[in-house]
From TrEMBL:
Motif RadA KNRFG motif: where in chain: 259-263
Gene that produces this protein: radA
Keyword Disulfide bond applies: no
Family, as annotated: Belongs to the RecA family. RadA subfamily.
Residues annotated to bind ATP: G101, D102, P103, G104, I105, G106, K107, S108
Origin organism lineage: Bacteria, Pseudomonadati, Pseudomonadota, Alphaproteobacteria, Hyphomicrobiales
Keywords: ATP-binding, DNA damage, DNA repair, DNA-binding, Hydrolase, Metal-binding, Nucleotide-binding, Stress response, Zinc, Zinc-finger
Domain RecA family profile residue range list: 72-222
Protein name: DNA repair protein RadA
GO cellular component: cytosol
Classification via InterPro entries: AAA+_ATPase (IPR003593), DNA_repair_RadA (IPR004504), P-loop_NTPase (IPR027417), RecA_ATP-bd (IPR020588), Ribosomal_Su5_D2-typ_SF (IPR020568), Ribsml_uS5_D2-typ_fold_subgr (IPR014721), Rubredoxin_2 (IPR041166)
Amino acid sequence: MAKRTTQFVCQSCGAVSSRWVGKCEACGAWNSFVEEVGGGTTIGSAVFGQKGRPMRKGRVVPLVELSGEIAQTPRLESGIAELDRVTGGGFVRGSALLVGGDPGIGKSTLLIQAAATLARKGARVVYVSGEEAVAQVRLRAERLGLSDAPVALAAETSVEDILTTLADGPVPDLVVIDSIQTLWTEVVESGPGTVTQVRTAAQAMVRYAKESGATVVLVGHVTKDGSIAGPRVVEHMVDAVLYFEGDGARHFRVLRSVKNRFGPTDEIGVFEMTGGGLREVPNPSELFMGERDGSSAGAAVFAGMEGTRPMLVEIQALVAPTSLGTPRRAVVGWDNSRLAMILAVLEAHCGVRFGQHDVYLAVAGGLRIQEPAADLAVAAALVSSLAGAPLGHDCVYFGEVSLSGAVRPVAHAAARLKEAEKLGFVRAVGPKLANGEAPNGLKRAAVAQLVDLVTRIAADGAGGAPRREQRG
């Protein structure tokens, strides 16, 4: 009989210690170690003894050549276009996906809608809920108008019982586990939700997906910093990691792909939360630009890219005089360090001073922008607010700003400009483009240096020029 050992596992990163410590040396978290009891044998000693002698007989794994025929992996289209876009064209059979998001953001609603759509198309779908009873899931399905879909439903948290149930009958096309933090297995003796239980349960479900060919979708809780709870190794085990983002004060939700072995990363799908569930938003630019006022100073339209999708969003800036010794810098939807860099470049190379002003920057609609191509739009919004000069309602901005003040080209410029032309914009300010890279109906103004943009706004502005200092 194997000897039982006691170990302490960090619930933030999964680090193991032989004794309890207050601060984890691996991730720096405080009071995160929890005592867990497991077997005395480890993964290595289960195969080889202390002296290197085999303890059990393994099987021979067939070895094949690198070259050979490659079978096209069939995909299972969910019927929800935005979800299929994020996954790369549909669920890949035999793959495991991890969907994370804040509580109440709509993870369960999205997955039950996808499960019902697939079931109506003839696929065998199993939905296992570990957080809600069967009656509660039925109430949600009835509210969404999905109660007639032939989805096999169960409320269970035991990994052994779930795998035995799935093996009893035909292999399902889709299995939804809501959520992975509620599962527990008899292999380990720690409580549900601990690092060891989450890792072991996820490994068992991923192994089932690979061996059976069924698509397994795991729902994961998130921590306070927005990352999926549990060890990071869970994200490495699955084939795709999707984050469901949104703000409770707004109706739209963004499904973002941060890892995908079978499709592009950083792809997004946009949904709108309604009384009847999540509704797809095929043209997010119209959603984020619907209430725009082009006559206000400090607002610039950014032609951005989210994965392979062009998207226009409005960047709003407010530069106001301050009486404080240290001016405030507040950012919503963009990188705070990036804003500090743009302010420094404007002061060093353009002579625009913000030392006596508070600066507030926000991305309209609650969307978060991560690409550096928004530098030029941010700079335009800042200068426009400081000068009190509106930028106009028919112009878009994009381009990366270097520390020397140069405006660098960005990828997918043609797609950005085509999206702007489709929504009625007639002018575009950005880096120099190659011939034929933009639509002919769009007027382009190439800026090589950031100071060219400041001069352009000062010349076109009706509310006064920005405050610049002459260099001697």
